[in-house]
Amino acid sequence: MCRGKWNKQMCLIMLLVGIASLLYGLLSFLIIQPEGHSQNTLLGMFTGFGAGICAVAVFRMIREKVVSKEKLEQEEIDRQDERNIAISRAAFSVGYCVAFGLIAVLIFLFMGLGYPVPSYICLAVLYLTAGAAFIARKVLEKKM
Amino acid sequence: MLSICGDGRERRTMKNRLEELRNARGIRQEELAAALKVSRQTISSLENGRYNPSIQLAFKLARYFELMVEDIFIYEEEE
Fold it and tell me: Most exposed among A15, A42, A131, B26, judged by the fewest C-beta atoms under 10 Å?
Protein backbone atom coordinates (compact mmCIF):
# COMPACT_ATOMS: atom_id res chain seq x y z
CA MET A 1 0.00 0.00 0.00
CA CYS A 2 1.04 3.58 -0.70
CA ARG A 3 0.63 4.52 2.94
CA GLY A 4 2.84 1.62 4.05
CA LYS A 5 5.58 2.61 1.64
CA TRP A 6 5.33 6.26 2.71
CA ASN A 7 5.46 5.25 6.36
CA LYS A 8 8.49 3.04 5.73
CA GLN A 9 10.38 5.85 3.98
CA MET A 10 9.39 8.33 6.66
CA CYS A 11 10.56 5.96 9.40
CA LEU A 12 13.85 5.41 7.60
CA ILE A 13 14.45 9.18 7.29
CA MET A 14 13.55 9.65 10.96
CA LEU A 15 15.90 6.84 11.93
CA LEU A 16 18.78 8.33 9.93
CA VAL A 17 18.21 11.83 11.34
CA GLY A 18 17.95 10.35 14.83
CA ILE A 19 21.15 8.33 14.51
CA ALA A 20 23.02 11.34 13.06
CA SER A 21 21.86 13.57 15.92
CA LEU A 22 22.59 10.89 18.52
CA LEU A 23 26.08 10.22 17.18
CA TYR A 24 26.82 13.95 16.89
CA GLY A 25 25.81 14.53 20.48
CA LEU A 26 27.67 11.54 21.88
CA LEU A 27 30.85 11.79 19.81
CA SER A 28 31.11 15.55 20.30
CA PHE A 29 30.78 15.05 24.04
CA LEU A 30 33.46 12.31 24.08
CA ILE A 31 35.89 14.03 21.71
CA ILE A 32 35.52 17.72 22.61
CA GLN A 33 34.68 17.18 26.30
CA PRO A 34 33.09 20.61 26.72
CA GLU A 35 33.53 22.43 29.99
CA GLY A 36 30.79 25.00 29.72
CA HIS A 37 27.33 24.21 31.05
CA SER A 38 25.51 25.45 27.95
CA GLN A 39 27.72 23.36 25.61
CA ASN A 40 27.08 20.28 27.73
CA THR A 41 23.37 20.97 27.70
CA LEU A 42 23.37 21.53 23.93
CA LEU A 43 25.11 18.20 23.28
CA GLY A 44 22.71 16.54 25.70
CA MET A 45 19.86 18.01 23.74
CA PHE A 46 21.28 16.60 20.50
CA THR A 47 21.66 13.18 22.14
CA GLY A 48 18.18 13.25 23.63
CA PHE A 49 16.58 14.47 20.41
CA GLY A 50 18.36 11.74 18.42
CA ALA A 51 17.39 9.01 20.87
CA GLY A 52 13.80 10.22 20.88
CA ILE A 53 13.51 10.31 17.10
CA CYS A 54 15.10 6.83 16.85
CA ALA A 55 12.67 5.47 19.44
CA VAL A 56 9.65 6.89 17.59
CA ALA A 57 10.89 5.51 14.25
CA VAL A 58 11.50 2.03 15.69
CA PHE A 59 8.12 2.09 17.47
CA ARG A 60 6.34 3.02 14.23
CA MET A 61 8.19 0.31 12.28
CA ILE A 62 7.29 -2.36 14.85
CA ARG A 63 3.71 -1.10 15.06
CA GLU A 64 3.28 -1.39 11.29
CA LYS A 65 4.26 -5.08 11.54
CA VAL A 66 2.23 -5.91 14.64
CA VAL A 67 -1.05 -4.03 14.14
CA SER A 68 -3.67 -5.64 11.89
CA LYS A 69 -4.15 -4.44 8.32
CA GLU A 70 -7.78 -3.47 8.99
CA LYS A 71 -6.81 -1.24 11.88
CA LEU A 72 -4.08 0.43 9.83
CA GLU A 73 -6.55 1.04 7.01
CA GLN A 74 -9.04 2.57 9.44
CA GLU A 75 -6.30 4.79 10.84
CA GLU A 76 -5.47 5.88 7.28
CA ILE A 77 -9.15 6.72 6.65
CA ASP A 78 -9.25 8.72 9.89
CA ARG A 79 -6.04 10.50 8.90
CA GLN A 80 -7.44 11.52 5.51
CA ASP A 81 -10.96 12.20 6.77
CA GLU A 82 -11.96 15.71 5.69
CA ARG A 83 -13.67 16.53 9.00
CA ASN A 84 -10.54 15.54 10.93
CA ILE A 85 -8.44 17.66 8.58
CA ALA A 86 -10.83 20.62 9.02
CA ILE A 87 -10.65 20.21 12.81
CA SER A 88 -6.84 20.04 12.74
CA ARG A 89 -6.64 23.18 10.60
CA ALA A 90 -9.00 25.06 12.91
CA ALA A 91 -6.97 23.90 15.93
CA PHE A 92 -3.70 24.96 14.26
CA SER A 93 -5.20 28.38 13.52
CA VAL A 94 -6.06 28.83 17.18
CA GLY A 95 -2.58 27.61 18.17
CA TYR A 96 -0.98 30.04 15.73
CA CYS A 97 -2.94 32.99 17.12
CA VAL A 98 -2.07 32.04 20.71
CA ALA A 99 1.62 31.57 19.86
CA PHE A 100 1.68 34.90 18.05
CA GLY A 101 0.16 36.67 21.05
CA LEU A 102 2.50 34.93 23.50
CA ILE A 103 5.58 35.90 21.51
CA ALA A 104 4.37 39.51 21.44
CA VAL A 105 3.95 39.41 25.23
CA LEU A 106 7.43 37.87 25.63
CA ILE A 107 9.01 40.73 23.66
CA PHE A 108 7.74 43.22 26.24
CA LEU A 109 8.39 40.91 29.17
CA PHE A 110 12.04 40.24 28.27
CA MET A 111 12.69 43.90 27.61
CA GLY A 112 11.02 44.85 30.88
CA LEU A 113 13.14 42.32 32.78
CA GLY A 114 16.28 43.72 31.22
CA TYR A 115 17.05 40.97 28.67
CA PRO A 116 17.25 42.81 25.35
CA VAL A 117 18.75 39.92 23.32
CA PRO A 118 15.92 37.40 23.96
CA SER A 119 13.49 40.25 23.33
CA TYR A 120 15.05 40.94 19.92
CA ILE A 121 15.06 37.21 19.14
CA CYS A 122 11.34 37.07 19.94
CA LEU A 123 10.77 40.11 17.76
CA ALA A 124 12.63 38.40 14.89
CA VAL A 125 10.53 35.25 15.41
CA LEU A 126 7.37 37.36 15.34
CA TYR A 127 8.37 39.01 12.06
CA LEU A 128 9.39 35.67 10.54
CA THR A 129 6.11 34.04 11.58
CA ALA A 130 4.10 36.93 10.17
CA GLY A 131 6.23 36.86 7.01
CA ALA A 132 5.71 33.12 6.57
CA ALA A 133 1.95 33.55 6.99
CA PHE A 134 1.95 36.40 4.48
CA ILE A 135 3.95 34.40 1.89
CA ALA A 136 1.77 31.33 2.43
CA ARG A 137 -1.31 33.48 1.86
CA LYS A 138 0.09 34.92 -1.37
CA VAL A 139 1.04 31.45 -2.66
CA LEU A 140 -2.36 30.04 -1.75
CA GLU A 141 -4.12 33.01 -3.38
CA LYS A 142 -2.40 32.12 -6.65
CA LYS A 143 -3.20 28.42 -6.29
CA MET A 144 -6.87 28.81 -5.37
CA MET B 1 -27.08 25.78 14.10
CA LEU B 2 -23.38 26.64 14.10
CA SER B 3 -21.28 24.20 12.12
CA ILE B 4 -17.89 23.85 10.46
CA CYS B 5 -17.80 23.12 6.73
CA GLY B 6 -15.11 21.44 4.60
CA ASP B 7 -13.07 24.59 4.16
CA GLY B 8 -13.15 25.42 7.88
CA ARG B 9 -15.56 28.39 7.63
CA GLU B 10 -18.77 28.67 9.58
CA ARG B 11 -22.17 28.10 8.06
CA ARG B 12 -25.55 28.31 9.71
CA THR B 13 -28.19 27.32 7.22
CA MET B 14 -27.38 23.93 5.69
CA LYS B 15 -29.71 21.06 6.42
CA ASN B 16 -29.64 17.53 5.09
CA ARG B 17 -31.74 14.39 4.83
CA LEU B 18 -28.86 12.03 5.40
CA GLU B 19 -30.21 10.26 8.47
CA GLU B 20 -33.62 9.85 6.89
CA LEU B 21 -32.16 8.40 3.67
CA ARG B 22 -29.78 6.13 5.55
CA ASN B 23 -32.52 4.80 7.81
CA ALA B 24 -34.83 4.27 4.84
CA ARG B 25 -32.20 2.04 3.25
CA GLY B 26 -31.34 0.28 6.50
CA ILE B 27 -27.69 1.23 6.38
CA ARG B 28 -25.59 1.67 9.50
CA GLN B 29 -23.35 4.71 9.96
CA GLU B 30 -20.29 2.43 9.91
CA GLU B 31 -21.29 0.95 6.56
CA LEU B 32 -21.89 4.35 4.99
CA ALA B 33 -18.60 5.64 6.38
CA ALA B 34 -16.71 2.62 5.01
CA ALA B 35 -18.33 3.02 1.58
CA LEU B 36 -17.37 6.70 1.40
CA LYS B 37 -13.97 6.20 3.06
CA VAL B 38 -14.66 8.68 5.84
CA SER B 39 -14.83 8.23 9.59
CA ARG B 40 -18.06 7.25 11.31
CA GLN B 41 -17.84 10.46 13.32
CA THR B 42 -18.03 12.44 10.09
CA ILE B 43 -21.31 10.73 9.16
CA SER B 44 -22.63 11.34 12.65
CA SER B 45 -21.62 15.02 12.53
CA LEU B 46 -23.19 15.43 9.08
CA GLU B 47 -26.45 13.95 10.31
CA ASN B 48 -26.50 16.17 13.37
CA GLY B 49 -25.78 19.25 11.25
CA ARG B 50 -22.57 19.97 13.15
CA TYR B 51 -20.46 19.64 10.00
CA ASN B 52 -21.06 20.58 6.38
CA PRO B 53 -19.28 18.41 3.82
CA SER B 54 -16.93 19.46 1.05
CA ILE B 55 -18.39 19.45 -2.46
CA GLN B 56 -16.57 16.17 -3.17
CA LEU B 57 -18.12 14.42 -0.21
CA ALA B 58 -21.54 15.87 -1.07
CA PHE B 59 -21.27 14.38 -4.56
CA LYS B 60 -20.01 11.07 -3.18
CA LEU B 61 -23.06 10.94 -0.92
CA ALA B 62 -25.37 11.84 -3.78
CA ARG B 63 -23.88 9.11 -5.97
CA TYR B 64 -24.07 6.61 -3.15
CA PHE B 65 -27.79 7.26 -2.66
CA GLU B 66 -28.31 7.68 -6.43
CA LEU B 67 -29.83 11.13 -5.92
CA MET B 68 -29.01 14.71 -6.78
CA VAL B 69 -26.99 16.74 -4.28
CA GLU B 70 -30.00 19.05 -3.85
CA ASP B 71 -32.12 16.06 -2.86
CA ILE B 72 -29.86 15.43 0.13
CA PHE B 73 -28.68 18.89 1.13
CA ILE B 74 -31.02 21.82 1.62
CA TYR B 75 -29.47 25.26 1.63
CA GLU B 76 -31.46 28.07 3.17
CA GLU B 77 -30.38 31.66 2.65
CA GLU B 78 -29.72 33.45 5.88
CA GLU B 79 -31.68 36.70 6.36
Answer: B26
DSSP, res B28: -
Cα distances (angstroms) measured from residue A28 to each of A4, A25, A31, A39, A123 = 35, 5, 5, 10, 32
Give ipTM to 2 decimals: 0.79
Encode pLDDT of B19-78 as tens digits.
999 999 999 999 999 999 999 999 999 999 899 999 999 999 999 999 999 999 998 776
Residue B51 sits at the chain A interface (C-beta within 8 Å): yes
Buried b or exposed e, range A91-111, using 16+ CB within 10 angstroms:
eeeeeeeeeeeebeebbeebe
Which chain B residues are Cβ-neighbours of A90 within 8 angstroms? 4, 8
Of residues A80, A86, A93, nearest to B6 (C-beta):
A86
The answer to whether the Cβ–Cβ distance between B8 and A90 falls below 8 Å is: yes
Domains of chain B: 3-71 (1.10.260.40)
The DSSP symbol for A86 reads H
Structural domain spans, chain A: 1-80, 82-144
Q: Is A83 within 8 Å of B5 when comparing Cβ atoms? A: no
- Are B39 and A86 an interchain contact pair (Cβ–Cβ within 8 Å)? no
Spatial distance between the Cα atoms of A33 and A124, rounded to a whole number of angstroms: 33
